[in-house]
Amino acid sequence: MDTNKGLKSTLIGIIVSAILAIIKGVGGIAGNSYALIADAIESMTDIVTSGMLWLGLKWSARPADTEHPYGHGKGEALISVGIGLGLVAAAILIAVKSIENIATPHKTPELFTLIILVAVIPTKEILYRFVLKTGKEINSGAVEADAFHHRSDAITSAAAFIGISIGLIGGKGYENADDYAALFASAIILFNAYKIIRPAIGELLDEELDMELNKKVREIAAQVDKVLFVQKCAIRKMGIFKIADLHVWVNKNLTVEEGHNIAHRVKDAIQLAYPYFIDVMIHIEPASEEVMAKASSSNQKHLHDDQNHRHDVR
After folding, report:
1. Which of 79, 130, 231, 294 measures 20 to 30 Å from 263, CA to CA?
2. Are 280 and 267 in contact (CB under 8 A)?
3. CA distance 185 to 39
């Protein structure tokens, strides 16, 4: 996991967003287009939230200490929530101003505003793909959230392009088309905000976010020699990393040292398959002769949950 990749992509996003915000803001004012001004506002929120992300990544990468024994990874989820709330604020501001402009007659936007948007849309889409790829590479929900912020900016630009085009083609009576476009873009931004905030809150509450990963971790643990059952597996996300807790059943006649070695082999196998697990905590449970006999006769490794097998294991 390379937090520096996230910091680099975030810094690039800040620089690009700042340049585009200036271009769109000046172009919107000079070209009489509130849709373009709204687009500039969205880019400015990109700068603020990306700045928050940069600080958040620096903080969440700090090692564990006495006050934070599990590390500072939860700070990354808090930053994701902050980015989502920044999007909500931008959407509300854009919607309010759009409604005001719809109610107020004004001139049709200038043609050159379309030229600005033709350059802005692909730039933001490229930035979105770059940041999203980085977020997936380092397993960072906050960096992925920042990517969706850039995608929202591209969407507002596309909406502005459509609105301004309708206004220019339609002529008199279609002056407010770009304001309606900005209003539509605000709804898209709100939807993206929800997509960012929802998983971040789940992470803060230690919600099970990836059942497929849970299943694969159980399977890896069950394949380790002398493991009879994997009764429980809980996974939580800590920033760009994950922590797993497992209950593993073994022969009750094994020594403490042997049980300890099995636990380490389970941990090593999981971390080998998924390096982003910074810790795997194993609780060794003693299995009765009855359970061991069933496991031996089946000649297979099975995954069992607590409800189905609590009565089999004492």
Report:
1. 294
2. yes
3. 9
Q: Compute the average pLDDT of residues 260-283.
A: 92
Q: Which two tokens stand for residue 271?
A: 């971390």
Number of H helices, E strands in the chain: 10, 4
Which pLDDT tens digit goes with each residue over 215-233? 999 999 999 999 988 888 9
Per the CB < 8 A criterion, the answer to whether 108 and 178 are in contact is no
Task: Note the CATH number of domain 3-204.
Answer: 1.20.1510.10
* Highest mean pLDDT (candidates 35-39, 50-54, 226-230, 269-273): 269-273
Instruction: Report pLDDT for 294.
Output: 63
Largest distance between two CA atoms of the chain = 88
Output the six-digit token pair for 254.
Answer: 């094994």
Q: Which of 164, 176, 200 minimizes the C-alpha distance to 73? A: 200
Find the DSSP H helices in 110-210. 112-137, 141-170, 177-204
